[in-house]
Amino acid sequence: MKGLKKMKKKFLFANYLNNLLIIAIFIFFCGENLFSQKLSLNSKLKIARVKYSGGGDWYNDPSGEVNLLKFIRENTNIPVEPVYEWVDLSSQNLFSYPILFLTGHGNVNFSEREVENLRTYLKNGGFLYIDDDYGLDKFIRREMKKVFPNEEFVELPFNHPIYSIHFKFEKGPPKIHEHDNKPPAGYGLFYNGRLCVFYTYESNLGDGWVDPDIYKDPPEIREKAFKMGTNIVIYALTH
Predict the structure, then answer these.
(1) Is the dihedral of CA 165, 171, 176, 181 positive or negative?
(2) Mean pLDDT in the chain?
(3) Which CATH architecture describes the domain 2-238?
(4) What are phi and psi of 175, to 5 degrees?
(5) Domain boundaries, the chain
(6) Which of the ends of the chain has fewer CB neighbours closer than 10 A, N or C?
(7) pLDDT above 60 (res 40)
(8) Phi, psi at residue 213, to the nearest 5°?
(9) Do residues 41 and 19 touch, judged by C-beta distance below 8 A?
(10) Per residue in 56-96, pLDDT tens?
(11) Residue 174 in contact with residue 186, Cβ under 8 Å?
(12) Is the separation of the CB atoms in 176 and 210 below 8 Å?
């Protein structure tokens, strides 16, 4: 019975991804007319914030994803629902979202069940974006090693499609906030040749998405963060 339930969840998740992929393909090639027709699929994109234990502030700056989705709605034809939602990795609700977002400043700790669930999610077409909000790096690398023991994060070259799929970033991820005077970098984890985890370090894209009065970043910096975030979403939906 449990096996049947898991198969059903995977099937629903696959259908949800397929609907979003159909929408994305028609958006790219056919424009707004078919976009309006495809809304009947009721597959508006939502991004789920990953809740984790260990003491890190997984919940910080909840306006980020909402503002990013609003930017995507205004600058693409992708149907979105700009709401803040979080998901527990141990829950089957995980499979309702095509894209997850994980951020924070400190320790991350995945349970065995969370590791298994996340591995299944990523192997079956899900996508995880991780943004180090400063202090996350050593912990997230340790925990993702549990998910894919035989894989390592690899730095993506600047000519990787994620940096040019919609907006062009010739030097990789933009620098939004300074921490240790290091260049920003984008890393990936691959499963069967597919990029399923994208991780930005020393970039802080998420800080650029939040309400403008929080960090008071200039508009041009915020725009870079939103554009790179849009690239991540489009890449995740089409690969």
Answers:
(1) positive
(2) 86
(3) 3-Layer(aba) Sandwich (3.40)
(4) -90, 115
(5) 2-238
(6) N
(7) no
(8) -80, -5
(9) yes
(10) 889 988 999 999 999 999 999 999 999 999 999 999 999 99
(11) no
(12) no
Mark 48-81 as b/e (b = at least 16 C-beta within 10 Å).
bbbebeeebebeebeebbbbbbebbbeebbbbbe
User: Which tokens in the block code for residue 14?
Assistant: 């696959």
Specify the 3-state DSSP secondary structure of 29.
helix
Q: Of 60, 48, 205, 72, which is closest to residue 128 (Cα–Cα)?
A: 48
CA-closest candidate to residue 186, choices 163, 209, 167: 163
Residue 155 is encoded by which pair of tokens?
Answer: 């730095």
Backbone phi, then psi, for 49, in 5-degree steps? -80, 135
Higher-confidence residue of 228 and 35: namely 228
Q: What is the C-alpha separation between 156 and 147, in angstroms, rounded?
A: 20
Of 181, 137, 178, 186, the residue nearest 158 (C-alpha): 186
pLDDT one-digit tens code per residue, 152-211? 999 999 999 999 999 999 999 999 987 788 899 999 999 999 999 999 999 999 999 999
Q: At what angle do helices 112-123 and 137-147 cross, to 10 degrees?
A: 70
Query: Residue 74: CB partners within 8 Å, gap ≥ 6?
Result: none
Residue 72: C-alpha distances to residues 51, 154, 202, 227 (Å): 24, 27, 23, 9
